[in-house]
Design goal:
With 443 residues, the chain is α+β, with helices and mostly antiparallel strands. It folds into three domains: 6-55, Arc Repressor Mutant, subunit A (Orthogonal Bundle), CATH 1.10.10; 56-309, no CATH class; 318-429, no CATH class. Helices cover 29% and strands 27% of the residues. It has twelve helices and 19 strands. The chain has helices at residues 6-22, 28-35, 39-51, 77-84, 140-151, 172-181, 189-195, 200-213, 240-247, 273-288, 345-348, 417-429; strands spanning 59-62, 67-74, 90-98, 102-107, 118-126, 131-132, 214-217, 228-237, 255-259, 262-270, 292-305, 318-320, 330-332, 339-340, 356-363, 366-373, 382-385, 388-391, 408-416. The strands form three sheets. It has a nine-stranded antiparallel sheet, covered by helices on one side. Helix 2 (28-35) packs across helix 3 and helix 5 (140-151) packs parallel to helix 10 (273-288). The chain is globular and about 75 Å long. The protein starts with 5 loop residues before the first helix and ends in a 14-residue tail after the last helix.
Length: 443
């Protein structure tokens, strides 16, 4: 057997990554055939790549219209980090050294002001769909040469990344599979079947629909994960596709997502001062060229993921599903002394929405959550806050006109049940006379 050179080993491990990026369930036998290597050779170096976290097993990120993210500040970030892990609804946390202390990704409504040492929010907004680009087989030297050519471009087209996500219509078995495979698609399905009698047909159907609701992330770290620092760069720009293309030239994986008007870029850079300074030089030049108009960054120190995500209708949540007859109908109802639900079916049967989804939690007659209206509905951007209905423009300022084109969303914060019912009735009947004095409607 011919011994592989270091370069051949490195390229084979890249091929393993590349094939897994395209098909996260591809067996080593098929990789061996495509790479023209023996199965034993692929087995050996695939195992090494996984153990040294060069090519970790692909994992899942659930994309949901209900997910939000917040950049938070605390007096004691470590204490807050440990405390937040106990909050129901939080699915991801990371601690940063930089312009903010903690990133939290969560479903529904979280009152962060109740967390110990809370100082404020740098940013909060809907969590956009997470996406990646396949890493090219290259070096850092070649990468920076390519970035230099991008930066020298004189004409750059404005572009915005738009993505929509829908909540999965999964049954209990689908959720069991998601949580089982969430952190590693390399697990054996047969092990899960020993605990739950899930059919292979159900498994194959779930796999086919998986990318409709989740992002499959396959990382590539040529020198192993521990050889890199993790940075999150936050840009406000009119050239989003250009930024994605620029940072996709790195020889390590980059992960992208939107939060409101900002594009987040998660990159991995070697533990080398010179290489890291070159990244900051790139950012500086983007600022000087006015390609980005606002910028923040942080160095990620540690992160946490919840082991098990629940359907939003679980426990104390009420889920509203999408229906062809455009009626707001409770998908599942849970009621107890602490949490309840709003039965709005009786006053919304004639609402002319094409699609309507939502998530509401009611505690002691106070409502928190979100209601989302699909494209083509009569409203956009409405926000209820302390019994006031506000309309926010894209830049965060208030506007006083309706928008009939873009998708709309209502964020509900501490609103009385009676007030919300009146609001929904107003949408149906088109008048405001019944609004209480404390409820102002800007339209």
């Amino acid at each position: 057997m011919t011994r592989l050179s270091e370069e051949e080993i490195r390229y084979l491990q890249y091929q393993i990554y590349s094939f897994k990026y395209d098909n996260p369930w591809i067996p080593n036998k098929q990789i061996a055939k495509l790479a023209n290597r023996s199965v034993s050779t692929v087995d050996r170096y695939a195992k090494k790549a996984e153990e040294e976290i060069m090519v970790p097993n692909p994992h899942l990120r659930l994309n949901s219209p209900f997910k939000k993210a917040a950049l938070l500040l605390f007096e004691d970030k470590w204490k807050a980090y440990n405390e937040l892990q106990r909050y129901t609804g939080i699915t991801y946390l990371s601690v940063y050294q930089g312009d903010w202390d903690i990133t939290a990704v969560y479903d529904g409504f979280i009152d962060f002001s109740q967390v110990s040492g809370y100082k404020g929010k740098v940013m909060e907004g809907p969590m956009g769909r997470v996406f990646t680009q396949k890493v090219k087989y290259t070096s850092w030297k070649t990468c920076f040469t390519t970035m230099e050519k991008f930066l020298e471009q004189r004409k750059i087209e404005e572009s915005t990344i738009t993505s929509t996500s829908s909540y999965p219509d999964w049954n209990d078995d689908h959720w069991r599979m998601f949580n089982y495979f969430k952190l590693s698609l390399g697990k054996r399905f047969s092990h899960l079947r020993k605990e739950y009698p899930i059919s292979w047909r159900c498994y194959e159907e779930w796999k086919k629909s998986l990318r409709n609701y989740c992002t499959v992330i396959t990382y590539y770290f040529p020198e192993g994960y521990q050889a890199y620092d993790s940075f999150t760069l936050c840009f406000k720009t009119d050239y989003e596709k250009y930024i994605v293309t620029l940072f996709s030239t790195l020889p390590t994986s980059s992960v992208f997502h939107k939060m409101g008007d900002y594009l987040f870029v998660n990159i991995f850079v070697p533990l080398d001062y010179e290489q890291q300074m070159r990244i900051y030089d790139v950012v500086s030049r983007l600022l000087n060229k006015k390609i980005i108009t606002d910028y923040m960054d942080g160095n990620r120190i540690v992160y946490w993921c919840c082991q098990r995500e629940r359907p939003i209708a679980d426990s104390s949540y009420l889920a509203y599903g999408e229906h062809d007859n455009s009626r707001l109908i409770a998908g599942r109802v849970y009621s107890n002394s602490v949490a309840n639900y709003i039965d709005v079916k009786s006053i919304t049967e004639r609402l002319k929405f094409r699609k309507l989804t939502g998530l509401l939690k009611v505690t002691h007659d106070v409502c928190n959550g979100v209601i989302i209206f699909d494209r083509g509905t009569i409203i956009d951007g409405y926000e209820i806050f302390n019994d006031e209905l506000l309309v926010r423009d894209e830049d965060g300022s208030y506007m006083l006109e309706r928008c009939k084109v873009k998708p709309g969303k209502i964020d509900v914060y501490n609103v009385q049940r009676e007030t919300l019912e009146i609001f929904l009735k107003t949408l149906q009947e088109g008048f405001t006379e019944e609004f209480p004095a404390s409820f102002r409607l800007f339209i």
